[in-house]
Amino acid sequence: MKTFAFRHAQTVDDAIDAAAHGATYLAGGTNLLDLMKGGVEEPSALVDLRRLALTSITSTDSGGVFIESGVTNSALANHRLIRVQYPVVSHAILSGATTQLRNMATVGGNLLQRTRCPYFMQTTFSECNKRAPGSGCAARNGFHREHAIFGASEHCVAIHPSDMAVALAIVDAVVHVQGTGGRRTIPIDQFFALPGDTPEVDNTLDPHDLILGVELPPSSFADHSWYLKVRDRHSYAFALVSVAAGLRIEDDRIVGAALAFGGVAAKPWRLTEAEESLIGLRADAEAFHAAAHLAMTGAQPLAQNAFKVDLGRHSIVRALTLAAVDRGSEGQR
What is the pLDDT along the chain (333 residues), one digit of tens a residue? Predict the structure, then answer.
């Protein structure tokens, strides 16, 4: 590992100033330190954010929740406001990693984690446009069973690994950031970047932006939501396909719906057309299968991951079926 300078930030402005002078932000470090050990990331300096104590979860005046960026994944998943109002977020987080990692990983770091594509994570592979722009994409002609079927480009077929982000997508979360240009907000559907011609760019943050927190608007799906994660083994594995599903049901009809895929793109893949197809229908198998068919429109699988198309359809039906069960009473426990 390359040697580096280290300092603790005392204030948000102090952290941003350090980043503007070349430092890399360090929070839980569960992804960054792995990348440093492997030589994928070689920062010359780290600025530790933990003394900023960005660790609060509070109700907002609008009836939503504001989650500061330093909140650990475990604290977020187990917080009563999240379990009651946004159970899909809690469910998604608890589907990922191990307890030990969730105890260290932070909300901000979860959003900023980088792909686990083996060609990116292992520097012995010279071809990786995300790690070394212009070098090529070894995955396209190599092992790509776990890679993208939506939103990829000839330059990169990697996926974003976050479970939490997929759940945040269906609740229309808003990311609050601060940089050298001041504070601003980024809707979650505009936060992540597809690879296009610049696969090394993972998101729409400006240089030196620091994530302050994530705001969740008032919940629409507290009683009817589910996060389904399909993976090769039950624990500590990234999703082959995941689905976050939320429904609002009134008088036995669906009046609101939200769906997002994980494990299939470089960002949570929102399924707007499938959502719209559910409105006004009964929450039954016929409606769910029709939505699942629409959800796969535009999929462009590679040779080894074509199974994700059929797996995605079945996963949507299963997630919607489970979301349709009224869990209002469970959320109050």
Answer: 889 999 999 999 999 999 999 999 999 999 999 999 999 999 999 999 999 999 999 999 999 999 999 999 999 999 999 999 999 999 999 999 999 999 999 999 999 999 999 999 999 999 999 999 999 999 999 999 999 999 999 999 999 999 999 999 999 999 999 999 999 999 999 999 999 999 999 999 999 999 999 999 999 999 999 999 999 998 889 999 999 999 999 999 999 999 999 999 999 999 999 999 999 999 999 999 999 999 999 999 999 999 999 999 999 999 999 999 987 645 443
Q: How far apart are CA 195 and CA 65, in angstroms?
A: 31
**Domains of the chain as residue ranges with CATH:** 1-48 (3.30.43.10), 225-327 (3.30.390.50)
Output the CA torsion sign for 24, 27, 31, 37: positive
Residues 6+ positions from 273 with CB-CB distance below 8 Å? 294, 295, 297
The rounded Cα 142 to chain-centroid distance in angstroms is: 25
Rounded CA gap, 84 and 329, in Å? 10
Full DSSP string of 51-87: GG----EEE-TTS-EEEETT-BHHHHHH-HHHHHH-H
CA distance 52 to 49: 6
Residue with tokens 């509070």: 58
21-60: b or e for each residue (b if 16 or more CB lie within 10 Å)?
eebbbbbbbbbbeebbeeebbebeebbbbeebebeebeee
Overall pTM surpassing 0.85 (yes/no): yes
Q: Is 214 exposed, middle or buried (0-12, 13-18, 19+ CB in 10 A)?
A: buried
